[in-house]
Amino acid sequence: MIGYAFMRYLSLRLLQVFMVSAGLLSTEVLADDPQRPSADPGAVNLILTADSPQVTRVGSFRVVSGYLSRSAKVYRSTSDRAQVRYAPKLPLNGSYEVHAWWPQVTMGAGPVEATVYDAKGRTQLQLDQGSRGGQWNLLGVFEAAAGKPLIVSLKAPEGRAVIADALRFNRLGRKPPALEIEPERLPPGEVNVDYRTELSANGRPPLAWALAAGQPPDGIVLDAATGTISGRAADAGPSEFTVEVRDATGRRTQREMRLEMMEAEVSQ
Question: How many CA atoms lie within 13 A of 116 on its CB side?
Fold first, then answer.
């Protein structure tokens, strides 16, 4: 006799197949292990592009060209305080990583205000659509629950524009995963040359960064609000230090870092 758990799991898989065919889920949702009917129901990797019916634009917008965009059409606001609202129809509750994508080059792109509504309330973030384009940018980990949908709004500050491109909602499971700092290794730098790299963590924003032990090279600092490591080192050699991050729920984690500064190459 086929067990109840297996029949329940099979029904869920059939529902996922239907939603994938309808364009509501990524095909990655079908990659879950079919031999684990008692496991977490499955993955969700939903990407909303600017022309999706689950994306609403408020205010005046026009189609613009955008190098390395995810959407077939990229929109830029032409009125003050315009906003873009992403309201995904998520099939499963749980913890989701939310990433934003905007083109690498778009005229008028700059700072925007992001507001995320989820099961734990409202979170406000500041994004800069004038940098880090053409890649997924992690906004944080948020919760979707029954009657409390996950919604993201991007709003243009007064006198600025907001770019409407893509958002990605990647389900991590029923509960948030262990807090981790990325990347594992820092890229090396050169003496007397501007250095900049950004740390990220899969926690609920705002994140607070700090040095728990050791020090970066002289001239290099860690930004406590953004996790950016930047500056200009005066001396060559390695430096070892430990970075700590705390998210809005109070969770903490640390990672040991090593930053190597090398003598700048002299052109012949």
Answer: 25
CA angle (257, 245, 228) in 5-degree steps: 65
**Under CATH, what is the fold of the domain 44-173?**
Jelly Rolls (2.60.120)
Q: Domain spans of the chain?
A: 1-38, 44-173, 181-262
Instruction: Report pLDDT digits (tens) over 129-180.
Output: 998 999 999 999 999 999 899 999 999 888 889 999 999 999 999 999 999 9
Higher pLDDT, 112 or 19: 112
What pTM was computed for the model?
A: 0.78
Q: Note the pLDDT of residue 15.
A: 58
SS3 per-residue string spanning the chain: CCCHHHHHHHHHHHHHHHHHHCCCCCHHHHHCCCCCCCCCCCCCEEEECCCCCCEEEECCEEEECCECCCCCCEEEECCCCCEEEECCCCCCCEEEEEEEECCCECCCCCEEEEEEEECCEEEEEEEECCCCCCCCEEEEEEEEECCECCEEEEECCCCCCCEECEEEEEEEECCCCCCCEECCCCCCEECCCCEEEECEECCCCCCEEEEEEECCCCCEEECCCCCEEEECCCCCEEEEEEEEEECCCCCEEEEEEEEEEECCCCCC
Domain 181-262 belongs to what topology? Immunoglobulin-like (2.60.40)
